[in-house]
Automatic annotation (TrEMBL):
Name the record gives this protein: XXLT1 xylosyltransferase
Gene from which the chain derives: Xxylt1
Alphabetized InterPro entries for the sequence: Glyco_trans_8 (IPR002495), Nucleotide-diphossugar_trans (IPR029044), XXLT1 (IPR042465)
GO molecular function: xylosyl alpha-1,3-xylosyltransferase activity
GO biological process: protein O-linked glycosylation via N-acetyl-galactosamine
Organism from which the protein derives: Myiagra hebetior
GO CC terms in record: endoplasmic reticulum membrane
Transferase among keywords: yes
Lineage: Eukaryota, Metazoa, Chordata, Craniata, Vertebrata
Keywords: Transferase
One Pfam family from the record: Glyco_transf_8
Length: 227
């Protein structure tokens, strides 16, 4: 077992020029803070990790594992042709809210709609990054360019504050083929904030998750069930 520690400041220095343009669209603060770049690490991981690293699992700290994380690595084998990232759906109507203007202008859209047929957006608490595929995908790298980010945020009237998760969600509305959707049991989010903030009528359509949970995600400081 080999453990390599990376210097956060060093990573941020490499990241900043790549993600600076998207920070103003997907950061909580007003403007672009240098330190915010680290919330976009996954987006450009393929550009800053050594070439010999071909696959990475990136996870949040507020997780509880109910199975061996090694089993999650097997999901890389399920990536369809062209997919570069494995990610689970967002389990609250947060993007129903964020895309309100686009949804109003496009009443038939699947954008922001609940599963199984809708596009509820993604949650970046558990990420499978196929760095090799990310490096080779012309489409993915084109989407990192400031002009493309600007074009998509204008099209979807998008203003977010959740960093990489917002970027993946917006790109997923346009190019779902770049993503392998993980089953909800790999990122069973527990936060219910949106249930009490205007979306109680549709909340359960987003929040339900069938099957034995493999990873619990106690997002928004939600307590994780004891065994």
């Amino acid at each position: 077992c080999q453990v390599i520690v990376h210097d956060v400041n060093e990573l941020t220095e490499k990241l900043f020029p790549i993600v600076e343009a998207m920070q103003k669209h997907f950061s909580a603060g007003s403007g672009t803070y240098y330190s915010d770049s680290i919330f976009f690490l996954s987006v450009a991981m393929h550009r800053i990790m050594p070439k010999e690293i071909t696959r990475i699992i990136q996870v949040d700290l507020d997780l509880k594992y109910k199975t061996n994380i090694r089993d999650l690595f097997d999901e890389f084998d399920n990536f369809p042709e062209g997919a570069v990232i494995g990610i689970a759906r967002e389990m609250q109507p947060v993007y129903r809210h964020t895309f309100w203007q686009y949804r109003r202008e496009n009443p038939q859209t699947k954008v922001g709609e609940p599963p199984p047929d809708g596009l509820p957006g993604f949650n970046s608490g558990v990420l499978l990054l196929n760095l090799e595929a990310m490096r080779q995908s012309k489409l993915y790298n084109k989407l990192l360019e400031p002009t493309m980010v600007q074009k998509l945020t204008e099209k979807y009237h998008f203003k977010g504050h959740l960093g990489d998760q917002d970027f993946f969600t917006m790109v997923g509305m346009e190019h779902p083929e770049l993503f392998h959707v993980l089953d909800c049991t790999w990122n069973r989010q527990l936060c219910t904030w949106w249930r009490d903030h205007g979306y109680s009528d549709v909340f359960d359509q987003y929040f339900q998750c069938e099957g034995e949970v493999k990873i619990y995600h106690g997002n928004c400081n939600t307590p994780i069930p004891e065994d």
